[in-house]
């Protein structure tokens, strides 16, 4: 027998004994096939029809279909397939080193010393690098970074993190017992969300997230079966967060779930805004009034470029609002070694500080993280260097400052350039990139393009980005992967490519946008 | 007002206006307190009463209360508190470097080169180490281990893993597309379990795990809300796995859930047995008959010591059973850089190979792992060296083989020693440590000790281990943390301490056991 299992819209089987539409559930298809060959065929144990339904709901656009296609195109280029471009520029993910940013010498020297302590006898390494390495090794089991650490993270590194936070926040105390080291910020954010999600039906935990958001949040909530509550950032006011909108969102959500968590991303991802001190105060007051747990994603705290903008940590503002707030509002703040001037994504380093967490819940959190044994120790070591960098009287100081300043100055320049160029293109409107590493411009798409996208079952901005990739070799992420107001369209682009390449990319996008607009007008 | 919230059994408040038992749910206690001071007090947003109930059910004995007490005792010793011992020996966790095992030179040289590529110009490093480092860096974004890798892991490392598996299994093909690199084996095991768990009530996924088990399994199932199905290993036959027992367990479980997964740990943790080829065949046949997905935890595949014992991979046996099995039975096998001769736990390296996984499920798996971006890249690099070690014609070969052999020979000697000493102690009965890194002896406890433990609300072997810790400074994990037949008692001890220390530890346990038996007889 010849059996075709296919999409009946696009495929016209002409030699089949039996045709089954591919959208039919397997449980209907399989008995059919079994019946035909007479052999009892039970099919797979694990199928998309019977697997964890929460996992199916997970989506993560930053590494979604468009990136998979980009990888494929790269392979085709290597194999000699002719394209209208010679390389794919990937501006889909905040991956600084992949875009050519060089690692900071001091960080890598210490990591090499920790990996192969024989090098401590090598006089090529500066003394401060050796001291840092020795201090880290002293704190490791058997003086090896190959030993498991405590599940919460190496104690002396947690102490260094606390000191760093105290300094950052002008002396407001930080307790190392409240610091949890993690495998990047994603790990800690997921863990904190996991603690929160409970209840059934109208009692199910609701989590407020910004729209546009970084899709880790929606993905983790889908996985955990938590209820996502959208609050919209105000694009017309440079993606400002408005408490009126928070109130609208929480009030509406109370009809169908139990809102319990408020997530903030500042500086914003994908939106690049930096929140004002006033805004943060308003948010904290709102969280207290509405009895919400605050989760402050502050991984871009050192990526602030715009004049007049300054990073204010939620913790500092909370404590400056007085004991009425600082002793009651529950909060977790997240940081990472993957961004800022380091861009060390591959090491998976990060930390979370918890404030006012119920001690019994904290005990549960410690128990939960212990199951996975410990965060990667090299990532912990790297974090230690970030929170305890070379001091003015140490030999590595000058080079360190020079390298750090160069990275941050280049990012600031690229932030400015990106805004400037995009705002000269009719049909692209772009807020200033005040901080973080992304721009999220609004693009005007012709109605004909929107209709054609819908025919293909694609979001209009996915249709746009796919075409941009195929024609120009530029890989961006469509706004629909982050969420946006109904009827608007965006893309997220990182500002990470080297300036010369960024300029080429911006020109190409301009050219493409004009062509696209003409083609569909 | 003076309010006491306390355990009424152990505490006698004499000056309270109000006494509330500490076991009372907070929702009952809080309104009471609020009523008294007249201030509306809403309490914490996140409490143990309203948090994720699955997380509360998670238990992980390997880092449980006994280890927390051990850490406390270490601090007390440092502060000068007098104890009947001068140091705590921690034999609770398979953490080789913490127990003094030295890292393998070649591995660490390559990691240092990857961390700080300037060292490639240094003629102190052997050529093969440099070549490995260059090859890894070539495969990284921007030639930096600080870039994110593909979520499934760096492609050339997955190819190396496949070649390693093919060689291990006598040429049976392995496809790099079926390899997923992970943050240790725990990460991949949890992910695979997450894919599996679905359904409600009697349709809820059931997962068969050995008893005794490594508590990652019970912890992950509690977290995911999957149904744990216990099958018991046969202690009298050196912890053999008996298909009759598997059948009993699956049949009983079908009354209340949907058994879909069978987990095997070979070599065994905590039990140290190595399964025969015949046993593995029987298990595979059983899995096919009962339509179960096999999860083979093979992280101790290079830790086999006993004469006549040999590691047989589930994959090899599956393929040798012919296409009826090799083309149908779905399987995942797990490996790690944390054990064997490396013991590099802190790097969180590992991989999973999937066999016969439904392509659509595999697409879901790729999507799921992409949310967490990538496994730690240093762990991936380390794994690459493990699967692609120095070859006989390379300069590092001799040292590498010498170091590896020394580690494995010492482990074999300690495995033998442990069994020998324990079996001379009346009341301790110990199977041979055929493989892995643990012994799980059965201990006879006097009835009086059992009663006293129960009075304190402790499992009898927890009572025993706590006393051993307090009196001797030895930290083991009670058998109750792994599961055991009702009425039997055990502990898990690693064989990792250096031989001289291990001898002292075994003597101390002998002494303690005799004293304990006398005290409670």
TrEMBL record, chains A, B:
A GO molecular-function descriptor: L-alanine:2-oxoglutarate aminotransferase activity
Catalytic reaction annotation: L-alanine + 2-oxoglutarate = pyruvate + L-glutamate
Key word Ribonucleoprotein present: no
Entries under SUPFAM superfamilies matching the protein: PLP-dependent transferases
Pathway as given in its UniProt record: Amino-acid degradation; L-alanine degradation via transaminase pathway; pyruvate from L-alanine: step 1/1
Aminotransferase class I/classII large domain residues: 119-509
Top EC class of this enzyme: transferase
UniProt keyword annotations, A-Z: Aminotransferase, Pyridoxal phosphate, Transferase
GO biological-process terms attached to the record: L-alanine catabolic process
Protein EC: 2.6.1.2
Cofactor dependence: pyridoxal 5'-phosphate
InterPro entries the UniProt entry points to: ALAT1/2-like (IPR045088), Aminotransferase_I/II_large (IPR004839), PyrdxlP-dep_Trfase (IPR015424), PyrdxlP-dep_Trfase_major (IPR015421), PyrdxlP-dep_Trfase_small (IPR015422)
GO CC annotations on file: cytoplasm
Family, as annotated: Belongs to the class-I pyridoxal-phosphate-dependent aminotransferase family. Alanine aminotransferase subfamily.
Oligomeric form and interacting partners: Homodimer.
Function: Catalyzes the reversible transamination between alanine and 2-oxoglutarate to form pyruvate and glutamate.
Protein name from the UniProt record: alanine transaminase
Origin species: Myripristis murdjan (pinecone soldierfish)
């Amino acid at each position: 027998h010849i059996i075709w299992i296919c999409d009946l819209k696009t495929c016209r089987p002409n030699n089949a004994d039996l045709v089954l539409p591919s959208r039919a559930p397997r449980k209907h298809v399989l008995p059919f096939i079994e019946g035909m060959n007479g052999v009892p065929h039970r099919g797979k144990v694990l199928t998309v029809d019977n697997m964890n339904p929460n996992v199916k709901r997970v989506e993560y656009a930053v590494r979604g279909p468009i990136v998979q296609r980009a990888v494929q195109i790269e392979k085709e280029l290597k194999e000699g397939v002719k394209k209208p471009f010679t390389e794919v520029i990937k501006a889909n993910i905040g991956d600084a080193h992949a875009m050519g940013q060089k690692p900071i010498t001091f960080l890598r020297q210490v990591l090499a010393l920790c990996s192969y302590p024989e090098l401590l006898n090598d006089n090529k390494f500066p003394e401060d690098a050796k001291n840092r390495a020795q201090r880290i090794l002293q704190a490791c089991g058997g003086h090896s970074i190959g030993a498991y650490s405590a599940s919460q993270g190496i104690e002396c590194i947690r102490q260094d993190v606390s000191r760093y936070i105290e300094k950052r926040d002008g002396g407001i105390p930080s307790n190392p017992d409240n610091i949890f080291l993690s495998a990047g910020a994603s790990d800690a954010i997921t863990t904190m969300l996991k603690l929160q999600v409970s209840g059934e039906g109208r009692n199910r935990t609701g989590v407020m997230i910004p729209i546009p958001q970084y899709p880790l949040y929606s993905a983790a909530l889908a996985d955990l079966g938590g209820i996502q509550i959208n609050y919209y950032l105000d694009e017309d006011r440079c993606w400002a967060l408005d408490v009126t909108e928070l109130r609208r969102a929480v009030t509406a959500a109370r009809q169908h779930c139990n809102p319990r968590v408020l997530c903030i991303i500042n500086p914003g991802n994908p939106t690049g805004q930096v929140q004002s001190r006033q805004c943060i105060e308003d948010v904290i007051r709102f969280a207290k009034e509405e009895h919400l747990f605050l989760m402050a994603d502050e991984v871009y705290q050192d990526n602030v470029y715009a004049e007049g903008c300054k990073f204010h940590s939620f913790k500092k503002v909370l404590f400056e609002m007085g004991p009425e707030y600082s002793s009651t509002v529950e909060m977790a703040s997240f940081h990472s070694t993957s961004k800022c001037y380091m861009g060390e994504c591959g090491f998976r380093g990060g930390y979370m500080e918890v404030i006012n967490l119920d001690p019994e819940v904290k005990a549960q959190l410690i128990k939960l993280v212990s199951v996975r044994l410990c965060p990667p120790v090299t990532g912990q070591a790297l974090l230690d260097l970030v929170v305890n960098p070379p001091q003015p009287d140490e030999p590595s100081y000058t080079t360190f400052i020079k390298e750090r300043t160069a990275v941050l100055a280049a990012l600031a320049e690229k932030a400015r350039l990106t805004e400037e160029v995009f705002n000269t293109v009719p049909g692209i409107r772009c807020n200033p990139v005040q901080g973080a590493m992304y721009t999220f411009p609004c693009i005007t798409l012709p109605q004909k393009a929107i209709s054609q996208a819908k025919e293909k079952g694609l979001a209009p901005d996915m249709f746009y980005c796919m075409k941009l990739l195929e024609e120009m070799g530029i890989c961006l992420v469509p706004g629909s992967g982050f969420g946006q107001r109904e009827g608007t369209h965006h893309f997220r682009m990182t500002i990470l490519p080297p300036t010369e390449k960024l300029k080429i990319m911006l020109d190409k996008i301009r050219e493409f946008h004009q062509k696209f607009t003409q083609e569909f007008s």
